[in-house]
């Protein structure tokens, strides 16, 4: 059995086209499948349109979350509820072409891959392109996860890889990083990432920054290293500054005034604030994990047996 997971949030304009393309793509390589739409707390008519689609296609299932838990949580809900021996993840804005699923399925079955990921070799949309590309290059360097470069959620996994991914229970999640972390035999399909088929983008620049921060703090100690380097640089700077002041006073040409003192206080204060911010981020993540709250809550599950 094959499962396709598609999280949606306020995508009423795209539901019909999304469902049609996804169903046609999946039926091109298998007749035994389920498509799990995860409604991530939509406030428009997305859920109503999904129910209408399900009336026409019995293999469509709907996971209706109790509120908006976020993109990564919605994918996690789908992963934990998917029944297939092969499971694919795809965004609901049609920037990831569902027609590539057939090639991913072939690579897993014929070439022995456990995971096949869509790797973006270009983007038709210019929105956040530079920032996204810089993040992927930077994250690969600091986290050491080569498979993450130019790869998002669009992927297909066999059951062994899905089971391993589901075992990752951290609350603050970055699935491309977790998918790379679990290992297994991973392959890639290159594609040009399309622009949105319609509607307003849900991933704003601010959300991209937050997702990037979650990725870096979850998979890298780079922020701590930056603090250490800044601390060492600050110590060396003021060590030499102290020597200079002592020498200047000894020879009577020390500058009179408060400029150096004030600048020193501001400099050291800024470094301390950076340290506190970085440490605070790690403490916050420890606190969130210690709460052990559910990653998501399901309001209703529309499957083939219940309404």
Task: Draw up the topology in text.
Elements: E1 2-8, H1 15-27, E2 33-39, H2 46-56, E3 60-65, H3 71-81, E4 86-89, H4 101-110, E5 115-123, H5 129-143, E6 151-158, H6 159-166, H7 175-181, E7 186-193, H8 205-219, H9 222-251, H10 259-291, E8 298-302
Parallel strand pairs: 1-2, 1-4, 2-3, 5-7
Antiparallel strand pairs: 3-8, 4-6, 5-6
Helix pairs in contact: 5-8, 9-10
Q: How many β-strand stretches?
A: 8
Average predicted confidence as pLDDT: 77
Q: Estimate the helix proportion, in percent.
A: 40-55%
For the record, the CATH architecture of the largest domain stands as Alpha-Beta Complex
Q: What is the helix tally?
A: 10
In the CATH scheme, what's the topology name of the largest domain? Answer: Spore Coat Polysaccharide Biosynthesis Protein SpsA, Chain A
Strand order, largest beta sheet:
7-5-6-4-1-2-3-8
**Termini distance?**
22 Å
- Give the CATH level 1 class of the largest domain: Alpha Beta
Per CATH, the superfamily of the largest domain is Spore Coat Polysaccharide Biosynthesis Protein SpsA, Chain A
Structural classification: alpha/beta
How many domains, as an integer? Answer: 2
Brief rundown of the structure:
By secondary structure, the chain is α/β, with parallel strands linked by helices. Helix content is 50%, strand content 18%.
Key phrases:
307 residues, elongated, 18% strand, eight-stranded mixed sheet, 2 domains, 10 helices, alpha/beta, Spore Coat Polysaccharide Biosynthesis Protein SpsA, Chain A, 8 strands, single chain
């Amino acid at each position: 059995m094959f499962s396709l997971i598609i999280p949606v949030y306020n995508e009423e304009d795209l539901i019909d086209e999304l469902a049609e393309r996804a169903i046609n793509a999946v039926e091109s390589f298998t007749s035994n499948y389920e498509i799990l739409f995860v409604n991530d707390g939509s406030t428009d008519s997305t859920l109503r349109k999904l129910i209408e689609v399900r009336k026409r296609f019995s293999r469509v299932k709907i996971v209706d979350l109790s509120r908006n838990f976020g993109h990564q949580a919605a994918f996690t809900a789908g992963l934990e509820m998917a029944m297939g021996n092969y499971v694919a993840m795809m965004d609901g804005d049609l920037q990831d072409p569902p027609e590539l699923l057939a090639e991913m399925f072939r690579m897993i079955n014929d070439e022995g891959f456990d995971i096949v990921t869509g790797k973006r070799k270009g983007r038709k949309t210019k929105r956040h392109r530079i920032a996204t590309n810089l993040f992927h290059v930077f994250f690969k360097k600091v986290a050491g996860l080569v498979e993450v470069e130019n790869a998002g959620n669009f992927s297909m996994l066999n059951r062994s890889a899905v089971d391993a991914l589901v075992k990752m229970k951290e609350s603050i999640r970055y699935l491309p990083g977790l998918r790379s972390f679990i290992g297994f035999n991973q392959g890639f399909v290159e594609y040009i990432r399309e622009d949105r088929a319609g509607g307003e983008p849900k991933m704003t620049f601010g959300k991209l920054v937050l997702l990037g921060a979650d990725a870096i703090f979850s998979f890298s100690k780079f922020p701590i290293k930056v603090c250490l380097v800044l601390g060492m640089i600050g110590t060396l700077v003021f060590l030499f500054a102290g020597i200079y002041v002592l020498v200047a006073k000894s020879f009577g040409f020390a500058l009179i005034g408060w400029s150096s003192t004030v600048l020193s206080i501001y400099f050291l204060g800024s470094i301390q604030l950076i340290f506190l911010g970085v440490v605070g981020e790690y403490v916050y993540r420890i606190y969130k994990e210690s709460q052990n709250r559910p990653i998501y809550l399901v309001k209703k599950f529309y499957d083939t047996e219940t309404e």
